[in-house]
Amino acid sequence: MTGRNCILATLLSLLAIAGATASAHAEADKPAEETLRSAPHIAHVERAPIIAAARAGKRIVAAGDYGVVILSDDAKTFRQARDMPTRTVLTSLFFLDDKRGWAAGHDGTVVATSDGGETWRVLREERGKERALLSVWFENELHGLAVGQFGLVLETDDGGKTWRERKLVEDGQAGDRHLYAIFPGGDGLVFVAAESGAIFRSADTGRTWKLVQTANKGSFWTGARLADGSLLVAGMRGHIFRSDDKGLTWNETASGTMQSLTGIVEHADGSVDLIGMSGVMLARKSKGLSFEPTLRADRTNLTAAVAGEGPVDVLFSLSGLVTGQ
User: Fold this and answer.
1) Of 148, 247, 155, whose CA–CA distance to 195 is shortest?
2) Is the distance from CB of 18 to CB of 319 less than 8 angstroms?
3) Which of 54, 141, 199, 245 is the most buried (most CB within 10 A)?
4) What phi, psi does 322 have (nearest 5°)?
């Protein structure tokens, strides 16, 4: 297995750990066709395997294996979405506001909601083609992008009714890199964190792109624009890179860990947390630049996080909602 395929396998094949548990709770009395197409009902939603999480206004929406989506309006108790007409693995969530959102995942699937995640509709899917989308982002209710493995990029200008396939850049090798996370940078800037230390930069809301190659040899799995205007990307082996010039140049920031990093959370006070494999959590105070690492006692592989009420993050893993320290 090549290095790049090993990286992707690390992210995607982990789902097998918890998948059987989720499917075991499917409702036995559903019609056969509905059961095969729709997400199964989960008896204990707090144990649902989660890969992505986002805020829809004040609501927390989390998604993962078998198309399962769970919701919380108090950051404590969760319930399952009423209707999800796919059971493909969902890897990414993005919300424009408290109602309108999208999720993307395996088989080139993109689904949408207009009620804060309660119900969903399928916009596109490619059953059997095994092309994974890893991140989705929308500029507004019409223009959006979804990115994934081997340089896969899909773009829509009509809210997802139709999609066209494209490349970020035409350079063969650079254009075929795995694309892990797309995120906005403010003022029309959009970034894609990618494999082999690559960051793709757009200054026109995703219409055209340029490759910015960092000194990192590993892949970036997550990225975010912070309230102070700086940009962070993070990923394999604990590497964090920061930009203070709108993504034109990037410099490494010490993380204090070799564990791979999967998510970035900023709090209202400006403090920043990063999460990752083996229960690693990094904390940066509001006026600081350095991160302080800690390890959870349970060494849980953390897959997603959102800011909770106050300084505590709401954490998720492939075993579900993560509680305690």
Assistant:
1) 148
2) yes
3) 199
4) -105, 125
CB atoms within 10 A of CB 237: 16
In tens, the pLDDT along 92-102 reads 999 999 999 99
Is 165 within 8 Å of 150 (Cβ atoms)?
no
The one-letter amino acid code at 111 reads V
**Looking at the chain, how many residues does it have?**
325
308 CB burial (10 A radius; 0-12, 13-18, 19+): middle
State the Cα angle at 52 between 47 and 54, rounded to 5°.
110
Structure tokens belonging to residue 78: 């969760």
In sequence order, what are the residues at sequence separation of 6 or more whose Cβ sits closer than 8 angstroms to the Cβ of residue 256?
Answer: 238, 282, 291, 292, 293
Which burial class, exposed, middle or buried, applies to 3 when counting CB atoms under 10 A from its CB (0-12, 13-18, 19+)? exposed
Letter for the amino acid at 75? Answer: A
Average pLDDT, the chain: 90
Specify the residue for token string 């890969």. 51
pTM of the model: 0.90
| Cα–Cα distance, 169 to 242 (Å, whole number) | 23
Of the candidates 209, 224, 222, 147, which has an alpha carbon nearest to the alpha carbon of residue 178?
Answer: 147
22-29 contacts: CB < 8 A, separation 24 or more?
Answer: 22/48, 22/49, 22/65, 22/66, 22/68, 23/66
pLDDT score recorded for residue 193:
98
Q: What residue spans define the domains of the chain?
A: 1-163
Contact 98, 54 (CB under 8 A): no
> Rounded CA gap, 39 and 80, in Å?
10
Query: For the chain, first and last CA: distance in Å?
Result: 36
